[in-house]
UniProtKB/TrEMBL annotation:
It comes from Microbacterium koreense. PANTHER family: STEROL 3-BETA-GLUCOSYLTRANSFERASE, STEROL 3-BETA-GLUCOSYLTRANSFERASE UGT80A2. Residues 282-383 form the Erythromycin biosynthesis protein CIII-like C-terminal domain. Residues 4-125 form the Glycosyltransferase family 28 N-terminal domain. Pfam families: EryCIII-like_C (PF06722), Glyco_transf_28 (PF03033). This is Glycosyltransferase.
Amino acid sequence: MRLLFTTLGSRGDVEPFLNLARTARVAGHDVRVARPDDADTDAAGLDSVSLGIDLAELSVQVSDGSALRVFRERIRPAMARALATTVDVALDWEPDVIVAHPKVLTVPAVAEKLDIPYVQVELTPTLTPTREFPAAGIAVRSLGAVGNRLTYRVVHSAGAMFASDVRSARERLGLATRGRERAPSRTLAAISPALLSPPVDWPDTTVVTGDWKGTDVAATLDDDLATFVAAQAPLAYVGFGSMTGGDAVARADAIIAGARRAGLRVMIATGWGGLTPSPAMLGDDVLVRRGVPHSAVLPRAVVAMHHGGAGTTHAVTRAGVPSVVVPFLADQPFWAAHLHRRRLAGKPLHRHRLTADNVERELRAAQAYTARVENVARAMASENGTATALATLTGLA
């Protein structure tokens, strides 16, 4: 099969697609990946093409200025380029199936033009309506059976701000610009059923595969990092991924101070700039990197403080490590509340209200949940999300 994987977003949106693409390539399929320019991910060994958009740069611009102005002047044109480029890539590659992130809104049109199936990917529960809980990113607490289902309409309506780009693509492809667009043949929910039980009212067309974990290994660690994570003193992993904004220095300093009070060393992954420790807070018990391989570092930690993105939430839980979640936006409050409700994490902390006292308290409290997290991790170990997803894709041919 010829498979086109296309995605937009930060590391959590891109890395799962790369992992599935590698699984498909190893299985003998022809694979191409269309992705953003900079998502802190490694596409080595894959046929990877750029969508002409750099989300890291755009994120910095939003944090430095008016969000509305940056959206109009920077984000809107960049998204238009990416959506148009997706059409170019698909027409050039002529795949048998397209596997797409829901942000890539022009995929239904080009799939219709090529008369091929496409599959949408649900990395967090936002696409398939259920009575059991609201769409991640819309609400945290249940709004009742009817209210919960309605929240998924809100998510779907978000694409309306790029409706003109979809219309332009359809005109360019010679397709009708009115009427219902082609529906996906399947929805792949790259979510661990051990972490989040699939709702009983999800249809058979939504396939819960397990998350699409990667194969980053300890051999990629530099000497200082390998030595630091191997030391015997208890370690806290801290990383907020692509999150930015607010006082990144005060935030990092409060976390370091609280971790020290809790008797923990600190491995800080600064990501796109959400954490910036001041020089005065550094010491032998703190190591700072832009990013680290989760599978090599997390198993050595006794607790992880993170933003609650779906990818990081799965990685931390799979490593058997309890969490303290500091949610920023989107689906992160959903995962923060879900982990705390299942007693896999301490109480979520507000990103603007971090103090040495509350950081110490929650880092200590979270460690009481280690045995519960380890039970979930054992269940997750039996899942093979990329293999399950690939079997679904090959069944469409």
